[in-house]
Amino acid sequence: MIKLDKREMEETLLKIEKVVLPAIEKREVELVDLEYIQEGGYLYVRVFIERPEGDISLEDCKSLSNEIDETIDALIPHKFFLEISSPGIERPLKKESDFVRFKGEQIKVSLKHKLNDNKNFEGIIEDFKDETLFLDIKGQTLEIPFKEIKKANIVFNFSDI
């Protein structure tokens, strides 16, 4: 079983990103997230893409995979699985622009450090400005500095369908 250290994983991820970004940009899609992770004894390169309109097809994923597969293969000396997909309905929010784009949506947020004795919050994006997320939690506005956000994602409400 291969065991890679965090530094090696991060360096490889940066190399992968340099390969992936030009291929994504020429397709007029956006990179939502990129992962190079080890789960169990397996390595994965996961590329999550979308269009602002939200319509990523299987053909989009296949085409991107075909273009970048050999180049990424040359970067990684170990066996790995390449996965290309849309981020799904509960997509992660990674960039400041994601929070602006999804204003009015319900999200879950995990923080790096406690705020008001809690690290996890769920609410509606009220606004995002000056590197601060304004989250409406049951009528109360919570201000969360962007640098404190560890993880955030859209919450899909099944009762709306």
Write the layout of secondary structure elements.
Layout: H1 6-25, E1 30-39, E2 42-50, H2 58-75, E3 81-85, H3 96-101, E4 106-115, E5 118-129, E6 132-137, E7 140-145, E8 149-154
Parallel strand pairs: 2-3
Antiparallel strand pairs: 1-2, 4-5, 4-8, 5-6, 6-7
Q: What is the CATH-assigned architecture of the largest domain?
A: 2-Layer Sandwich
Mean pLDDT: 92
Give the quaternary arrangement of the chains: single chain
Instruction: Evaluate the radius of gyration.
Output: 18 Å
What is the helix fraction of residues, given as a range?
A: 25-40%
Low-confidence stretches: none
Beta fraction of the residues? 35-45%
Distance between termini? 44 Å
The spatial strand order of the largest sheet comes to 7-6-5-4-8
Tell the overall outline: globular
Number of strands: 8
SS summary, helix count: 3
CATH class of the largest domain: Alpha Beta
What is the CATH homology-level superfamily of the largest domain?
RimP-like superfamily, N-terminal
Helix and strand pattern? HEEHEHEEEEE
Defining key terms:
161 residues, alpha+beta, GMP Synthetase, Chain A, domain 3, SH3 type barrels, 2 domains, three-stranded mixed beta sheet
Q: Can you offer a commentary on this structure?
A:
By secondary structure, the chain is α+β, with helices and mostly antiparallel strands. The chain folds into two domains: 6-85, RimP-like superfamily, N-terminal (GMP Synthetase, Chain A, domain 3, 2-Layer Sandwich); 96-160, SH3 type barrels (Roll). Helix content is 27%, strand content 40%. It has helices spanning 6-25, 58-75, 96-101, and strands at 30-39, 42-50, 81-85, 106-115, 118-129, 132-137, 140-145, 149-154. The strands form two sheets. Strands 7-6-5-4-8 form a five-stranded antiparallel beta sheet. A three-stranded mixed beta sheet has the order 1-2-3. It is globular and about 50 Å long. The protein starts with 5 loop residues before the first helix and ends in a 7-residue tail after the last strand.
